[in-house]
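for the record, two folds in this file. i put them one after another cuz i was lazy. first one right below, seq on top, structure tokens after. the second one comes after a little note so u can tell where it starts
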Amino acid sequence: VVRAESLHRLREFNTQALSNTAWAFARMAWDDESAGATSGSFAEALAAASAKVRAWPETQHLATVAWALARLAVVDEEGPGRAFWTKFSLELSAGGAISRCRSRELVASSMAAAIGGVLHGALAGAIGAEARSRLEGGALAAGASSFRERLRAASGLSWAFATAAQADAELFAVAERVALEELRHGGAAADVLDGDNVKSLLGLSWAFAFAHEDGAGGKVPQAVLTALCAAAAARDAE
């Protein structure tokens, strides 16, 4: 019922309504075929409606829709998918949206772009430059300066560029420095065993190894193992 009503009214939705609807269906991992829906692809209809939005004043809404469509397997192919991802790329790279993104939105947008198949060319250049600037200047820590958040940002950005086969050696080098700084100043050794931290550290290791970039690998994988061993030893001693 919700799907049918939403599908009928998508063209009337503003950006917040599109964002909320996209988030809800993506969280459910909605699949039209499994649900027995026969009136067309809801994800493609959502992409088509989102592509027709003239402007996205709230970058959070755009990032959420992009994340949702990536999760629903709508990629840069002919049809509604291409229309949305083209709009998304232009909004970020030429429309000034990237400078208005909060840190989490920048990371989410980069990861969505990688999955959607558009993290290349002008968009990759714009996201890479913005990410390097924020990481180097500490801006990614604004409002979320914890050890966990800094690592998550560096990991997410590196994952996106490695997944999209974008060899941004400068970004990887900056992410590596941030990770090592956070490891040195992130608190007690036992805290490193926190699930989110381990996930971020291993994500960074994978990204650097997968990217095969000189200067972008080696130190972080070793630091991960050292940190985990130190944390395990600290806990054993408790």
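(here's the note) second protein begins now
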Amino acid sequence: KFCTRGNTTHTAPFTRQYFPRTFSKMTDKAISLLTSCGVKQSDIYETLDSAVKAASASEEGPKCWAVVAANGTADAPNTIIKALKDGGSRLSIVVAASTGPVSQVQVLRAMEYGEVYVASTDFEGKAAGCVKECLFFTGPAVLLFTPAAVTKGDAAWTTFTYDPRREASGSAFAAEGDKVRKE
């Protein structure tokens, strides 16, 4: 399947009948979360590469969302940083983790890239709020979502958001609670 935006043709966005059957329940949950927050299914891509191509095709239009499973090559820190560089301001990446321990390295490294909205939270908590904030953020985003049960009792887990728009008022980084992981 192919679709065209502007003058560029690229692989098709997410459609249930063409989506790989190997996607986990957590990536399905992430896709459901995105659509419940108003993201059109046509703006959700089945691979990081197809989302990057769509996002870089034009500076105008809605965000292009890639939903990737954690613990794979698509969520490796260097892969995400390269995607942010190539995808431009319209790229948003959701990393869906289903088992623990959950590494937050990929989202922490995304903060180093610059004007990127970054969040790490559980599906049951502030995930919907993070997606909605991303929809109003003009730059790229990297979000890590996991079930609360996966991170319960994990001393290394920190729920946080990093919003560059808050930099002028003090700190772009906001952790939930008083514990912050040491990297």
